[in-house]
Amino acid sequence: MSATAPLNVNFITQITDLADCVGQTPLVKLQRLPEQEQIDNGAIMLAKLEGNNPAGSVKDRPAFNMIYQAERRGDIKPGDMLIEATSGNTGIALAMVAAMRGYPITLFMPSNSTQERKDAMTAYGATLIQVEEGIEAARDMALQMQADGKGIVLDQFNNPDNKQAHYLTTGPELWAQTEGKITHFISSMGTTGTITGVAQYLKEQNPAIQIIGLQPDEEAAIAGIRRWPAAYMPGIFDADLVDEIMDIDQRVAEVYMRKLAKTEGIFAGVSSGAAAWAATQVAKANPDAVIAFIVCDRGDRYLSTGLYNVDDSIDNAN
């Protein structure tokens, strides 16, 4: 081939579409969290590393599915204005997919979200509107913009394509990666799409699998997960699929976030620390359990918070 000949990509099997990079994330066994002498009952803890998705979080899965399914149905077409309320990761993922597929997108986001998240959304070309009152107000404002005829709300909180993404991908991956041996699944709950979709799939394979959801306790404010007021409970949530809901203390979640990085090399956010803590509690109580939990995103989205610079002892956060 001459230096000026055009590249024939049909002969290069390594080239793929970015959409094909979503999912199939690693499931890794924890080695030193907590120390082996603390749990010596045969239970193992497995972390699903969703930060390996192209836009860096578990929300890549529903973002792709919500847009692709809407296209397939003819609900949207390239050039339409998309609208969404988001606390961060979904907005980043939607901004990425919108850029790929040719959609302008406006995102309503609580102003207390990290600067890294805001910068990532605008890097993908999204219009970002910050809301002082929190995610509930952001949801209301997004719906009002749609009512005013200024775009189409994807509505991650009530859109069945959100949970379908996890029924079609995350659940089957966990089942295959554990060779059907998974006994417990743990997920923080935000839109509840992850826990609902995964639970539906896993319960169909083995109804005995225990599904454990995590919500902040009354005093906590953990990015990406919520303790929803009844009026704002996501419509996609199916409480019948969740066997237990655990309240998470914010300090404990932050300590375990740092422990994941320092003892396992898993650099993740606060909700992932919450899931790691919950996994240790489940492991202590269930000999020979195979426990999988979601590591929602990567820790570089939280560097500006200063949370990684805190010196603490895991012994005081059990």
From TrEMBL:
UniProt GO BP: cysteine biosynthetic process from serine
Pathway: Amino-acid biosynthesis; L-cysteine biosynthesis; L-cysteine from L-serine: step 2/2
Keyword Transmembrane helix: no
Transferase keyword on record: yes
Binding site for pyridoxal 5'-phosphate: 89, 190-194, 271
Documented EC number(s): 2.5.1.47
InterPro entries for this protein: Cys_synth, Cys_Synth/Cystath_Beta-Synth, CysM, P-phosphate_BS, TrpB-like_PALP, TrpB-like_PALP_sf
PANTHER family in the cross-refs: CYSTATHIONINE BETA-SYNTHASE
Family: Belongs to the cysteine synthase/cystathionine beta-synthase family.
Protein name per its UniProtKB record: Cysteine synthase
Lineage, top ranks: Bacteria, Pseudomonadati, Pseudomonadota, Gammaproteobacteria, Moraxellales
